[in-house]
Amino acid sequence: MKIKNQPENLLEWVALRANLAPTPLIDTQVAFNAARAIMAAAELGIYETIGRNSKTADEIASACKTHPLATKQLLNCLVGIGYLQWDNEKYSLKSKYHKWLLKESESNLIGKLRFQLIEWEWMGKLEDYIRTGKPLDLHGTASESEWRLYQEGMRDLSINAAKELASKIPVPTGATNMLDIGGSHGLFSIELCKKHPGLSSTILELPGAIEAATAIAKRYDITNRVNHVAGNALTDDLGAGKYDLVMINNVVHHFTHEQNDLLAKKVARALKPNGIYAIGEFIRAEKPGEGGVVGATTGLYFSLTSSSGTWSVSEIESWQKSAGLKIEKPVAPMSIPGWKIFIAKK
């Protein structure tokens, strides 16, 4: 998925074609102003206040307890970048964004947009990371409120993908037990348990994340077969021959190559015969430029915020192979661009 500049008139089209428009400024000043405006509106409750109606700037400011003139500036910006519409002094949310920006929609991204205000501060430390090579220690320093925002953001990213993947992950026939490493909100486990009535899931999560994660899971789990356990997959004994499926999503970018290799061997031991080890991750290109914008930007982001960063297809599959597992065809969901889940069988 590419992000590109779209001309709004003939003059801008000519300027872009002739390389006269200052694209580095469009890619930075314009882009980060727009991004911050979208996130600020989520944090301030602007979208929810407008809902499916049309309201004046004063009505929105009164409901959100914000400054009237400043609120109007934000609303005008959101009209300009295509999120809101303006007519007869009233603002409305474009219908295509109802799915993503209204809390009544299960697919809403409000939690992730609010969490991105924290991520904004993290990215502000990028230059220090590049100079020193020292990534941020986020898991060791996150506050309780940051954990809550993080978990809600991860819910937003996963709600549609979990439903899509539930029918695509090859769960062994008659499966009864799965282990979801770092499963957070539990949505992947919940959808799999709904799809497979005999299946139960144990979510292994860091102690600091348990409270917020279980609160989210309770909102969605109608199976009563998903349970959280505090622990650490790198240091805990995962047992032998216990699980039909072991899944780890959006976690291996926190681990080094050596840690992921050792984890794969522990997982292989913990699997039953014909058991599945599924690794879901954003993918780093084998060569720079091959992975597109999502691969490039997530690679940089996770190198700043974790111990390693994203991994290539060959690297991820190498851990599974070294553990004696048979590589199956990976699954690429439409709901998460640049992300795949890698399947290997014991």
Outline the structure in words:
- This protein is an alpha/beta fold and 346 residues long.
- The chain has two domains: 10-105, Winged helix-like DNA-binding domain superfamily/Winged helix DNA-binding domain (Arc Repressor Mutant, subunit A, Orthogonal Bundle); 126-345, Vaccinia Virus protein VP39 (Rossmann fold), CATH 3.40.50.
- It is 49% helix and 16% strand.
- It is built from 15 helices and ten strands.
- It has helices spanning 10-17, 23-44, 46-50, 57-64, 68-80, 98-101, 110-123, 126-132, 138-141, 144-166, 187-195, 207-220, 257-270, 292-305, 313-322; strands at residues 54-55, 84-87, 90-93, 177-181, 200-205, 226-230, 243-249, 271-282, 326-327, 339-345.
- The strands form two sheets. It has a seven-stranded mixed beta sheet with strand order 6-5-4-7-8-10-9, with helices on both faces.
- α11 (187-195) links the parallel β4 (177-181) and β5.
- α10 packs parallel to α11, α10 (144-166) crosses α12 (207-220) and α13 packs across α15 (313-322).
- The protein is globular and about 65 Å long.
- The two termini are 34 Å apart.
